[in-house]
Amino acid sequence: MKRPFFLYTFLLLSFLTAVGLSVYYYHQTQLYDQRIVDAISSEEILPTYHFTLIGEEINHDYWRLVGEGAKETETKYDVFVEYEGPERSNPDEQLKLLDMAIKSKVDGIIVQALNENFTPLINMAVDQGIPVITIDTDSSQSMRNSYIGTDNYLAGQLAGKALVEDTNGKAVVGIITGRFDNQHHQERVQGFIDIVGEYEEIEIVAIEESNITRVDVEEKAYNVLTAHNTITAFYGTSSYTGIGIVAAAKSLKRHNDLYVITFDTIDENIQLLQNGYIDVIVEQKPYDMGYQSVDIMLDILHGKQVQNVYHTPASIIRMADLLSWKREMGRSL
Ligand code: BGC
User: Fold this and answer.
1) Closest alpha carbon to 156 in 130, 183, 191, 112
2) Do 145 and 159 have their domain in common?
3) Which of 217, 208, 233 is nearest to 268 (CA)?
4) In a domain, 7, yes or no
5) Other CB atoms within 10 A of residue 48 CB
């Protein structure tokens, strides 16, 4: 008797969720269209080109810099850059934003292509004559015009070399990556493994994914640390992994003897590096990625030949480099 009841309840809930999501995305599309109509009907003369940039998390410190770099080009070129992204990392929502940008017939799309689900939409945009540049994470199998961002395999190798140098080739390592199905995280892990794999006394005992949330990183790092109490080092492949690893290590009183590598020079990571809780940061150039993506897009629209790939630099920062790094970046000392 109970089965049909649960089945009907499940079907009803699925139906209501589907209706709710359709209404939500219909409403978002209407808002988007209205913004365009408002812009068109205002007195202002619109820029010649309208580009959409879609990142992983709109208010994330790393993505804000990508957005700022792209927006900065508005002062130089006749362009309007619409910077978009989900509030919290959510590949499905990112796909909807991509779909909306295609339907709005923007002049160019710059998108972080998180996984293979992005390929059909990227191909659809290009088929419809909208150039696409992938940023931060590539979709090399798609028809995208170009990729700009870190060489993620090389960045993983840099992290591996840093670990080898700093531990004299002897460590028990836990890895916390972003998502297993994200190409850039796969490459960052592979590059690392290919370097440390050459050293007999380096052992990787766990690889977990964080889903790009601080809470998950902390939980996964906590679990890994308790399951393998011989761990001496952690490698995190995205911006917040170092923060979560340090938090977990603190709660297990392991923060003073653990070697930690993370990505990105966001303020909290710099602070943790300065205080000795993080040992190495792999620095990327998010602002440059954003800025140059617009340059490349304009070249494409002006019929110029562009490269298949543009790599922005990645480098290693340790505590000893902090002073000169801060001077160079104009950050307070
Ligand atoms: C990655 C981005 C990601 C961010 C999230 C960065 O290291 O390059 O793809 O969105 O970390 O924390």
Assistant:
1) 191
2) no
3) 217
4) no
5) 12
Ligand 1 site, residue 62, Cβ cutoff 6 A: yes
pLDDT digit string, tens, across residues 290-333: 999 999 999 999 999 999 999 999 999 999 999 999 999 988 76
User: How close is the Cα of 11 to the center of ligand 1, in Å?
Assistant: 37
How far is the centre of ligand 1, averaged over its atoms, from the C-alpha of 312 (Å)?
14
Could you give the CA distance from residue 74 to residue 66 in angstroms, rounded to a whole number? 14
Which CATH number characterizes residue 240's domain? 3.40.50.2300
CB atoms within 10 A of CB 244: 25
Does 122 map to a domain? yes
Q: How many CB atoms lie within 10 A of CB 318?
A: 15
Average pLDDT over residues 134-145: 97
Question: Can you give the pLDDT at residue 40?
Answer: 60
Q: Which residue has the tokens 């920062």?
A: 317
pLDDT digits (tens, 9 = 90+) for 39-62: 666 556 899 999 999 999 999 999
Q: What is the pTM of this model?
A: 0.86
Domain enclosing residue 299, as ranges: 34-150+286-312
Res. 1: pLDDT tops 60: no
Same domain, 180 and 213: yes
- The first and second tokens of residue 55, run together, are 């990142």
Neighbour count for residue 96 (Cβ, 10 Å): 18
Return d(Cα 294, Cα 34) in angstroms, integer. 25
d(C-alpha 86, C-alpha 130), whole Å: 22
Query: 122: closest CA among 147, 152, 90, 157?
Result: 147
Q: How far apart are CA 75 and CA 141, in angstroms?
A: 34
318 within domain boundaries: no
Residue with CA closest to ligand 1 atom 3: 238
Shortest-distance Cα residue to atom 12 of ligand 1: 239
- Using alpha carbons only, what angle is made at residue 83 by residues 293 and 138, rounded to the nearest 5 degrees? 45
- Domain for residue 279, yes or no? no
Q: Is 245 in contact with 217 (CB distance < 8 Å)?
A: yes
